[in-house]
Design a protein that fits this description.
Blueprint: E1 6-15, E2 18-28, E3 33-38, H1 44-52, E4 59-64, E5 67-68, E6 76-79, H2 91-97, H3 106-119, H4 135-148, E7 153-157, H5 165-182, E8 185-189, H6 193-199, E9 202-207, E10 212-218, H7 230-242
Helix pairs in contact: 2-3, 2-4, 3-4, 6-7
The structure holds adenosine-5'-triphosphate and magnesium ion (MG).
Length: 256
Amino acid sequence: MTAPIISIQQVSKMFAKQPVLDQISLDVQKGEIIAILGKSGCGKSTLLNLIGGFEQPSSGQVLLDDEIVMKASKRCIMLMQNYGLLPWRSVQKNVELALEGTGLTKIERQRRAQHYLKLVGLENRLSALPSELSGGMQQRVAIARALAIQPEVILMDEPFAALDTFTRYYLQDELLAIQKEEKTTILLVTHDIDEAIYLADRIFIMSPNPGRIHRELLIRSTKPRDRSDSDFQHFREIIFNEFQFTHPQNAVEYNI
Ligand SMILES: Nc1ncnc2c1ncn2[C@@H]1O[C@H](COP(=O)(O)OP(=O)(O)OP(=O)(O)O)[C@@H](O)[C@H]1O
Ligand SMILES: [Mg+2]
């Protein structure tokens, strides 16, 4: 096995003397899609923030390509849940702006922005303002912007949570197609169990107070996966059992 692109080594994090993450260790290989599942408050966003360099661990370390992550960089991009689009800029300009300071010429920035906006099916909305788009389209602009930077790693914190089921399915397929082409490494936090099984090569289930890796699931079936086949049901059952969904008296415990 080659060296991991991300190596999380015995990472713990305290906030106001409270342990939030405890001794998290995991490696991610280049081109993998990793999903992180866990109850609200178990530290999933905190973990992504540590990987992205937005927070520092209280102990342990995060390595990106063998280098300790000390600050945020364009090699590892966070896809924000609220899209983070500038409302007064057009769709195309929003993507181009993310490419400033990368050494590309203006023409190159324009071409690259258009290329990724086409990939997410927005080539006809380049001059629209974000407010003129649906929520799903705004999310696609945010995805195009993250991809246009051509990061090695994309961190996604519940990227499709605000979308209806059909838009979500559509974007999940788009993400898989683009990821296959670009070999981007993706870490995805989600509350959606099916989304995790549909997209991920490995799923990490976290337990809370303090956040720990409780279980790792390896999903080998080829993509795109069939949400109705027996493999899919098998993983759904394992995960539901982990969250004790199958025992009605405990069902309320999982606060989605
Ligand atoms: N900057 C901060 N300062 C103090 N406490 C924080 C900070 N960020 C997170 N926490 C605490 O750390 C714990 C984990 O928070 P985190 O946002 O990582 O959870 P999460 O698993 O992403 O939850 P959710 O599924 O609701 O998004 C929570 O108890 C939260 O209150
Ligand atoms: Mg969170």
